[in-house]
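debug: dumping io for the single-chain case to check the tokenizer round-trip. Nothing else runs in this session.
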Amino acid sequence: MVHMGEFTAAFGRSVATQRAVTRPDHTPREQRLNRCAARSRNNLNYMESTIIQETSTPVMPRIPSTETDRATITPNAVTPPPAGRASWRARMARQFPFERINWITSSFLMGTLALTLTAVPVYLWFFGLDWFQVALFFVMLAAAGFSISTGYHRLFSHIAFQAAWPVRLLTLVFGAAAFENSALMWSSEHRRHHKHVDHDDDPYSISKGFFYAHIGWLIFKLNPNPPYDNVPDLLRDKLVCWQHRYVQVIAVIVSFVVPAVAGALWNGWQGALGAFLIAGVARVVVLQHCTFLINS
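debug: decoded output
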């Protein structure tokens, strides 16, 4: 039998214990902040150690245990990752689509850019710049640029207006000087772009990244090239077909030979070299990247 005094003492101890548990924390604010900071540092250290362990420990492929697993797992899934940077580079070299590179276009794009960044400054350093070179640069830039924007784009791609054959001939000749291929191919790709904008069939879809939309779509061309089934009107145009057949010859003559001859008549071989580099090579690079920036 429990005495009243013992019962009262036990009850008092339980109440005191409950008050001690439910008593609010009167620890100074600085100590509470220090404990929170310590817990945060512990959590951060744990996360760092986990990340380091996951990145440093190679993940071994799962070995199929049943016939079903062997049927569903692809060979690449069970191939262990290469060890070391040399193996990674070798694998990237094997997987790089060299067979899809348009070597002629890529070499031209990189070669003209390299000459613009190296040969043009050297020429300006030794021979300077006169008003004839500047005027010839802007005349060629305007002639080729308007032939692309007005001729290739508005006239042939969108058929926004009709033009007489002399106007069409001039736009085809100076449009070739932009080295953006023929009006037939340019219009076919542009119409395909508007039909499948930002999708897989878009020749320069921005959804594939800035580099692809800017210049990558020229470096990595589809093989074979898509048919010209979306430009039947241009296939019936004799001037367009003539330019498509001889576009590279026209481009070289108008872009490089004509400026060089004009420069030679102005200032001999120095003028010819300067016109070739400034009104020819540098002008092609500037105009092409202005067009590419519109695509990207």
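debug: round-trip ok. Residues 247-295 form the longest helix (49 residues).
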